[in-house]
Amino acid sequence: MKSTATTKRQRRMARQPSSNANGTLDAGGSDSASPAIREPSETKKPNKTDFALALLKREGGATLDELVEATGWLPHSARAALTALRKKGHAIERTKLDGLSRYAIVGSVSQ
């Protein structure tokens, strides 16, 4: 009869622990130190929220249709962006003129 006992293979870990410069174990699997921290660039590319802010800061503010046209968002996304700006501390005022709601920033960011 043949022997059915086989040797079990040792299980491999997803990442082999390595020791870092302090001598402590690091489960990251790489021998290099932490990646270099990038400095934020001084010239930030404007995003859609920046366009919405510019519209809201102008004289008379902006309507929902103007926000949708400028950003390419759907109306519910533009309203959600207004809510996000409120949560960030912008004071947004809503006025109705001729049946249209106009939104405008009436103050600076309150922290």
Automatic annotation (TrEMBL):
Residues 39-48 have a biased composition (Basic and acidic residues). Pfam families: DUF3489. This is DUF3489 domain-containing protein. Residues 1-49 are annotated as: Disordered. InterPro entries: DUF3489 (IPR021880), WH_DNA-bd_sf (IPR036390). Transmembrane segments: none annotated. It comes from Tsuneonella deserti.
